[in-house]
Amino acid sequence: MRRSDKEITDQNLMDEIIKKAQVCRLAVSYKDMPYIIPINFGYLDKVLYFHSANDGLKLSILRENPQACFEVEIDTQIVPSEKGCEWTMRYQSVIGFGEVEFIDDIISKRESMKIIMEHYANDKPFPSDTMLEGITLYKLKVNTMTGKQSGF
């Protein structure tokens, strides 16, 4: 990282940033073109969990090339200055890389959906097995991640 003064090296802090984030951006490669998807997620032990419909472009891409990158950020705030070119941003972010694996068995689907639901709405009714069979669940096992912050 070019700006070591902004680097976050504490894994616990990176985990907290991921857990506080509301949206994860998942970046994949499609025929030598980047494709990025803002997506809901859950996180536990360096694994991100996602769900979607059973078909679509992102799933086609991930089945062909499971390598992916993710990004999350929290506490973003513009910090203005007298000169427009001196404005800056306050934030904390995490970027990481890994490989996507699809989750097929119903027990693992239940566990994965529980992690996603705990991230957003732990008090809502849990989907039935029939509903879980009608969606695709997948996870990104994080191989590497880096954190960055400004204004903290």
Describe the structure.
The chain is an alpha+beta fold. The protein has a single domain, classed as Electron Transport, Fmn-binding Protein, Chain A (Pnp Oxidase, Chain A). Helix content is 25%, strand content 45%. It has helices at 11-20, 57-64, 106-120, 129-133; strands at residues 7-8, 24-30, 33-39, 42-44, 47-52, 67-79, 88-103, 136-150. Strands 1, 2, 3, 4, 5, 6, 7 and 8 form an eight-stranded antiparallel sheet that branches. A hairpin with an 8-residue loop joins strand 6 (67-79) and strand 7. It is globular. The two termini are 17 Å apart. The mean pLDDT is 92.
Tally of separate helices: 4
Q: What's the architecture, going by CATH?
A: Roll
CATH top-level class: Mainly Beta
Instruction: Give the tally of structural domains.
Output: 1
